[in-house]
Structure formats: structure tokens, C-alpha cells
Amino acid sequence: MNRRHKKYDLLARITQSINEDGWNIFYLSDPAFHPFRLKVYRESESFSIKIYIWHLTHGGGVKRPAHEYRIQITGVDQFEQEIGGKTLILGWWEPGGVFAGFDCKMHAGTLGFSPSIQIGEEALWKANLSGFATWVKDNKEIAIAFRPDFLVEYIRNLESLHSFGESDEDVEVLEHIIERPDGVNLTEIQRVSEPRKIAITNITRKVRDNSFKKRVLAAYRYQCAFCGIQLRLVDAAHILPVSYEGSSDETSNGLALCTLHHRAYDNALVTVNREYQIIHNEAKMVIMKDIGLDSGAEKFINDLYPVILIPSAVKDRPHVEYIEKANEIRGWELNF
What we know:
Elements: E1 3-4, H1 8-20, E2 24-27, E3 33-34, E4 36-42, E5 45-58, E6 68-72, E7 86-93, E8 98-102, E9 116-120, H2 121-130, E10 132-136, E11 142-146, H3 151-156, H4 158-162, H5 168-179, H6 186-190, H7 196-219, E12 234-238, E13 254-258, H8 259-266, E14 270-272, E15 278-280, H9 282-290, H10 297-302, H11 320-329
Parallel strand pairs: 5-7
Antiparallel strand pairs: 1-3, 2-4, 4-5, 5-6, 6-9, 7-8, 8-11, 10-11, 12-13, 14-15
Helix pairs in contact: 5-7
């Protein structure tokens, strides 16, 4: 039964996490009632989800381990599956700013008296640092701790991730990826059972992407390098795209760009040269004028800084080799 809730802070955590990852939300039921029912979508991909969530609190009592945290389930007699979608059981741990996800299949049927579901503190702190962590219980249930920037990836790989508890070897590979994502090779991934290979690949990519994003945004103080805007509208853009040989996830291959300038950069309307000067594409602007699509061009150009915002740490500044290679593949002919 849906119950009116006082979990406004938890719903806000969920929606903010989803939106900041570039996904959209449509409410499938009144958000004043728990569990929450949402449709999460981006482009052609979408998921209908039902979310049960409580705050994670210390286990308490002399009979419980000191490192144990739990969600104390209240107001729910049984977890109801989202028909045609996914059902999430989540906890929110305020001290570390992380979620914990539990396997709905392991908690089917009528719940007992004062039910709770546990996770270890070690996994929560590890997720705070690495973004993602696992906790395998004695009954082979695997709980997943993760930062808010991993929420959508958790949703996408929900069933596969919770199936890792079936194989100690697969859990070992997953943990290795979390701790050393750049050290994972194809041979190691091939060791993982089907269909968990897809989840392994997705998590590896997300760990790397989030590390890159976090470092680049911090280096530019969360401001667009081309115009200075913040307002949570800034992306971490690769100077040399990841699909090209020689690209990397080094901070020096990144620029913090607002949504507008990220798209303009990728479409060669604007770039940066080896002196860190910002250059707009005059030839393309002429073409836009000729076809009547130049509205706002003057403001667009005037709003650009003469030179990019430059990270204070020299090692984080855009590397000249990345800049020149990226300009070459985008068709820029710059002699300065």
C-alpha cells in the first residue's frame, strides 16, 4: 500500500542524482506517496522504476556488529514489484553521502516483525572514495554501495549487479575494477560469467568517466572555461575525443564547458589554440548567415573569453599535443 511520506529529503536526493547525470524524470504516481514510482529516460533509453528508500542508521544493540548499518523497514508489509520495470530497495547514508542498494529478489514475500536490511560500514566508506563498492553477506546476497553519480548506472545494471553474489570470482573482478579501473584488461573481463560481462564493462566505463569528470570540473572550479558560467550547467569535455588514438582520461585532456560551449566545441564552431586563446569559426559563421541561421551569433562571440580559464595546477592545464591533434581532426587550420 502506498503511504503518504515525510521522505522529501530522500526524494530530492534521488531526483538530483538522476538529473545531474543528464537523465530526465517523469512521475508515474503522486510523489507525496512512498514508494516512489518514476520513469527515468534519456534519448531512446528509459526505465520504469519503483523505489523503496529509508535512511541508513547504525545497527545498534550488543548483538549486532559495530560496523553494521541498516535500513529499518517501516510502513511496508511486502515489497511490490514494478510491473514491466525495476524495483529498488535503497538506503541513504548521510555521513558519507552514498546510497546502498539491496536485492529485491532476496526479500520477496511478507516481511517479518521489525524487518531490517544490513550493509557494512567499510563498503559505505569505500563507495564514498571510489564511487562504488560491494558487500557480500553470508547468504550470498550482495549489497551495492554507490555515490549519487552512480545511481543511474546502478539502475541500468540492477539485476546483473545483484547476481554477482553467485560467484566469488566475479565479485573479485568487480572489486578490482572499482579499485583500479585503468588496470583492467579484456582478459580479466572475459573471466566474468554471462551476462555480468555487460555490467562489468558499463561500470568500468562509468568509474573512469566519473573520475575524469570530477578531476576536470574541480580543476576549473566548476566554471565553463569559455564563459565562466557555473549553475550546475558544466560538463567535462575531452579535448581529443576518446574514440581517437592517443586520447586519455588525463585531466590535461579535459576542458570544463557549459552545455552550449560543449556542443559548439564538438561541432567546431569554437576552439582553443596552443596559446589558450579562444577562436570562433568565422567560415562557419558566414555559412550560417547565408542560410539565415545566424541569430544570436554576435552575442555568442561576444560572450566568449579572450583566453580560457586556466587551472591553477600546471599538470591540469590543457596539453598542447591534445589541443593540436583535436584541432586537426576537426578541420581547424590555425597557424598560432
